[in-house]
Design a protein that fits this description.
The complex is a heterodimer of chains A (86) and B (407).
Chain A lengths: L1 E7 L1 E7 L4 E9 L2 E4 L2 E10 L2 E9 L4 E7 L4 E8 L5
Antiparallel strand pairs in A: 1-8, 2-3, 3-4, 5-6, 6-7, 7-8
Chain B lengths: L11 E6 L2 H9 L8 E4 L8 E4 L1 H4 L9 H7 L4 E4 L2 H16 L5 E5 L2 E5 L10 H16 L5 E6 L2 H8 L7 E3 L5 H6 L11 H9 L5 H6 L2 H8 L3 H10 L14 E11 L2 H21 L2 E12 L4 E12 L2 H12 L8 E13 L12 H18 L26
Parallel strand pairs in B: 2-4, 7-8
Antiparallel strand pairs in B: 1-6, 1-7, 2-3, 5-6, 9-12, 10-11, 10-12
Helix pairs in contact in B: 4-5, 10-11, 12-13
The chains are: A mainly beta (86), B alpha+beta (407).
Chain lengths: 86, 407
């Protein structure tokens, strides 16, 4: 299953100064909490003036593609996938 | 005069990301790892597979197959479309790592780079050690699923050949000591630049293997096989001498599009053509060039085609100028048939500051400044924030693609 979305979500983000590591810690989507286990990939995209940080993360069951807009400080869930065909 | 093998120490490294598009997708989506997946132009049955994952290759799925054919080989094949932004980001990180070792890094495509180490301090470390270090850095700095093939040689050809010896995740070196041994295990078409037609030509001259090819004298390659200087180039290339170290010059810009819905409606086609012209124009303008030559290619439903190129007297720069030139060629078609593919390109490029302005047409310069300003607005506020009226409803019609071949 791979679903493209564009939904605002709540995110708790953690930054570890000792390891210099930034990772979303928990996301709340449709009233459910998902605790992030792994940051698979992070990259930045510029859309005109806006700088977007794209995080590919997983909670172990689902893979999420979430984006942080540095202009308006919003988090958007862009994609959810479980790696299966249907 | 016969020349022996190049006995100088290898200084060229070729790095090739394994199944790049698929591996990058697996890196970003951990649940896809270890599964046969394919990245295709379109996920539908007729879509062309651009890159199968390493796992999918084991089932015989290859680049260029249709999605439908891939699913016949492995029914549970997961098909995704390419995330071009993600792939470009990996490419930039990949290139940045390579630039830490030598300033001479040339991307050959989105997933291949050639590093020339001659006269760099990194050489002291030894290229095999550098190759291992680069592989390790890819895994730690890009992603642990990212693997690559590293080939080392005295020229680009041998380095690329070495990179293809042990896939995936190989590291090989070809120099004068093992060159003949490596050639003895390859076929002619395994050599980069030799495909079936060249193979036929070589076979006709009694050359059936890379070893035969290596042992053929220069004058036979030049006068009998290739009938020109190309034969001499092959003679040197096979012996490990560098002859491919040149920078090619940009001579044209082009865009093409296979229509999702075939049509013969001129208004529909105009919309597609102006979007292709806008994309082509953005690239032309960012290179600070203008063009006098234009080419239009159309493929019809019955697989016949129309191809016509024309050199105009005046140079074009703005999207509307490009569009009007292409439409002039478009209306030269002798028949009206349903079209399934459109390609536009411009050539005969001229630097913008070398242009002679038209004495009678006073708005030309004004329009060019306007066009430049529109591009700057799109650069700053996002692609297609402002666009020609004809392009209404076309924002997501022609998708971003990554070209194969030289990047």
């Amino acid at each position: 299953m791979q679903e493209k979305l564009f939904e605002k979500i709540s995110v708790i983000f953690s930054y570890n100064a000792e390891k210099n590591r930034s990772i979303p810690y928990k996301i709340r989507w449709r009233l459910r909490d998902y605790f992030i286990k792994t940051l698979a990939y992070h990259h930045k995209v510029r859309e005109g003036r806006e700088l977007l940080h794209i995080f590919h993360v997983t909670d172990g069951n689902l893979d999420f593609r979430i984006r942080f807009n540095t202009e308006d400080l919003n988090w958007i869930l862009e994609e959810v996938s479980d790696g299966n065909i249907t | 005069m016969e020349i022996s093998l190049n006995k100088s120490p290898p200084t060229v490294m070729h790095i090739d990301l394994n199944s790049c598009f698929a591996t990058v997708e697996q890196q970003a989506y951990p649940h896809l790892r270890g599964k046969p997946i394919a990245i295709a132009a379109y996920p539908t049955g007729g879509g062309c597979i651009l890159a199968p994952s390493i796992e999918a290759k084991k089932f015989g799925i290859k680049t260029g197959m249709r999605v439908r054919e891939g699913k016949e080989l492995y029914p549970d094949l997961i098909v995704r479309t390419a995330d071009t932004v993600l792939i470009r980001d990996v490419h930039l990180k990949f290139k940045e790592i390579c630039l830490d070792y030598s300033p001479d890094v040339v991307p050959k495509s989105i997933d291949e780079v050639v590093i020339n180490f001659s006269e760099t301090p990194a050489l002291k470390k030894g290229l095999i050690n550098i190759g291992r270090e680069i592989k390790k850095r890819f895994r730690t700095e890009i992603g642990k699923w990212i693997s690559c093939n590293v080939g080392i040689g005295t020229n680009r050809f041998l380095a690329k050949t070495a990179a293809g010896l042990h896939k995936p995740d190989g590291l090989d070196i070809i120099d004068y000591k093992n060159l003949e041994d490596v050639y003895s295990k390859l076929t002619l078409t395994d050599l980069t630049g030799i495909n079936v037609r060249f193979e036929y030509r070589l076979n006709k001259a009694g050359i059936y293997s890379p070893l035969d090819f290596l042992k053929t004298p220069d004058h036979i390659l030049r006068k009998v096989v290739f009938k020109g200087i190309v034969g001499h180039y092959w003679y040197l290339r096979l012996r490990g001498f560098e002859i491919d170290d040149f920078k090619s010059e940009r001579k044209s810009f082009g865009q093409d599009y296979a229509l999702a819905k075939k049509t013969s409606d001129v208004n529909e086609l105009k919309k597609i053509i102006i979007k292709l012209c806008e994309k082509m124009g953005r690239r032309l303008r960012s290179s600070e060039n203008c063009a006098a030559g234009f080419h239009l290619g159309l493929v019809y439903e019955d697989w016949t085609n129309f191809h016509k190129g024309h050199k105009f007297k005046d140079y074009s720069y703005t999207t509307s100028e490009l569009f009007s030139k292409i439409m002039t060629i478009f209306f030269q078609q002798s028949t009206t048939k349903t079209i399934i593919k459109v390609s536009v390109s411009c050539f005969d490029l001229q630097p913008l500051n070398n242009m002679t302005l038209n004495l009678f047409e006073t708005n030309v310069e004004k329009n060019r400044f306007l066009s430049k300003a529109l591009d700057e607005i799109n650069d700053r506020y996002g692609e297609y924030i402002i666009y020609p009226g004809l392009m209404m409803d076309m924002k997501n019609t022609i998708l971003d693609r990554i070209a194969f071949g030289k990047g």
